[in-house]
Task: structure prediction
Amino acid sequence: MSNPFVQPDLDYDREHVWHPYSSMTEPGRIWPVVSASGVRLKLQDGRELIDGMSSWWCAIHGYNHPTLNAALVEQAERMSHVMFGGLTHGPAIELARRLVALTPDGLDKVFIADSGSVSVEVAIKMAIQYQQAKGETGRTRLLALERGYHGDTLGAMSVCDPRRGMHHLFSGILPQQFFVPEPATRFDQPWNPEDMTPLKRCLEDNHQQIAALILEPIVQGAGGMRFYHPEYLRQARALCDQYGVLLIADEIATGFGRAGKLFACEYADVVPDIMCVGKAITGGYMSLAATLATAEVAEVISQGEAGCFMHGPTFMGNPLACRVACASLDLLMESDWQAHVTRIEAALQKGLAPARGLKGVADVRVLGAIGVIELEQPVDTARLQPACVDRGIWVRPFANNFYVMPPFVMGDGDLAYLTSNMVGALESTLAV
Result:
């Protein structure tokens, strides 16, 4: 279809299609996309935008990749879906084999879920069922970090920041969890041992009620795009062991190289009891995630009262998604991904540095293929986003953060164009 959008379509979209984090009475502006290739989105009006978001951090290989296209078509011709209860298939087995090989040693049991939020729900249920199977029936609550973000479903929302997070409106109906202040020591600062005091006190006082500590290793994403010191993660692991609390690592955003290591847990050389992965797992082709657990977690749950783990999504282990995920992970590991991420990190550091001189900018920081310009006040998205589109870039700011997570295949010229026009767009909106 050469011209898929006409004005009645866009009018219908405005009246009937509810976009994420949007109002139906006063919807924000949207731009119709007709195709995508490499690192570019092509709009209805013919303009092309360099995509700085990797479509919410997942399209690490860019768009319309021939290898991923071929994997999708080949699998569709064999079997697009089959229930995973009582059946299995090659793509799921191969995906599990890759995930066990790539993730930290000891994470040997793989539960293939539908999305990142679902993988967090699965992790929470695993932790609670594990403690119940051990006879620790009072351990029904989670411990989480302020400024954390773990997804939009009810269980996942309950472990997001309860005050400053986007889900505080639901606080009255969410399970009540324990929270401690986020780590204050930045990734690149000297370690401050006082950072551990709140976590130590909370575990000492409440460990008999706590099933697991859930956190985003090193990078707190949608809760503020914060990078914290690896020592916090190391000591958190030790405290969890001391108090019989499981450690859940939410690597949905950071996994598969985004933060400069294949998994951010590697910065602290720790192995969580449960790990959630998603986003980049299929290279942005379709929704898929996984929750990995240690043999101990799996065995204790399996020997408990239920005799099984009580979860089973309809589309669990979807063959199409698993096959594309295998191809995506192969592409990643066959490439020099770490060199690409290091190159992107250097380009982001250089390209975003001029923003430090702009009035209203609180901080500029980069880690791996993540670049953040933090403002002193919330971003004026209604003005900044169109300014970016007018300059040929796609960046979607939120709260106080104007950030990018480019595809790993983005070239130096596009990175320079992306960052310089981010700074230019920001300067033009702050100046008004």
